[in-house]
Amino acid sequence: MEETQELKRELLHCKQEVRNLRGVKEAQQQRLFAQEECMLQLKQEQLRASMTQDQLTSLNAELQRKLDERSRLLSECKAGLQRELECKDNMLQEMMSRHGDQAPPHLTATPLPSGAEELQLVRSALRSLRGVFREQDPQHHTLDTLEQGITSLTDRLTHTHQGKGKSSGCNRATHNQHDSWPPSKMAHSYSSPLLSSCGSTKVLYFTDHSHTPCMIHINKRLGKVTLRDVKTAVDRDDNYRFHFKALDPEFGTVKEEVFEDEALVPGWEGKIVAWVEEDNGEERIKGPSC
Question: Which CATH architecture has domain 200-290?
Fold first, then answer.
């Protein structure tokens, strides 16, 4: 009997151990399933990350290709504009040389009307080129230099023509200019020693696109120059605003805007100092402005 009881106790103990082992087995299986699920999620995330990386690599390559294409187009555009500027410069030099060689003796006191028209075409082309560039583009300095070169060449040509007829005197030279120049070109003359002795005004003006001033001469005495004369001389239309350096009794040195074409512009220390700005449609207030 005692042996039977002992065997029963051992059997119960074995059953208890079997139940414990089954519980441990189930717990291990659940943990294994959880780890497998976590591993599957990690693999999915790795796959998505790999696909995203491939997309970014492809996008980066596409952007780099577009950047290279834009850089190439920009270089070609700059090269084309540079060639066009050089072509215009060569045309101007040929035009000035042709006028210097072919001017008839009875017209040596002034440039030929056809030359003035061609010079106007060149200035119009420069103005069109200026509109192509951005406001801060350094090519504006090149255009300013070219425009100053045009002014210098015109000065030399005018001085050469008028030097040949200098013996006729200042009054006769002025009379010939009024007879041979069209009215629209009379105010668009540049300085020469002969003209200065007859009475001309130096105009120093600044533009929106350059901090370097340009200088021209108007064939009128200071105090008789109108806004229309300045517009004609600087080759700007009504889409621009003109401010002039002036002395105000109350405020001192001011920038005064002139509106009417027939209004006289103020002078400063024997010359005219002007700022030519593009009209953006802002409201204008008459009177001096600081």
Answer: Beta Barrel (2.40)
**What are the tens digits of pLDDT across the range 143-179?**
777 776 776 677 666 666 655 555 444 444 444 444 4
Q: Which two tokens stand for residue 76?
A: 């070609």
CB-CB neighbours of 121 under 10 Å: 13
Spacing of C-alpha 121 from chain mean position: 22
Q: What are 75's two structure tokens?
A: 């270089």
The two structure tokens encoding residue 15: 């059953």
Q: Which residues of the chain have pLDDT under 70?
A: 100-120, 135-138, 140-141, 148, 151-152, 155-198, 281-290
Give the integer Cα–Cα distance in Å for 154 and 185. 14
Separation CA 48–CA 56 (nearest Å): 12
Q: Which of 222, 235, 219, 204 is nearest to 265 (CA)?
A: 222
- Encoded tokens for 205: 């003006």
Task: Provide the whole-model pTM.
Answer: 0.35
Domain residue ranges in the chain: 70-185, 200-290
pLDDT value of position 39? 95
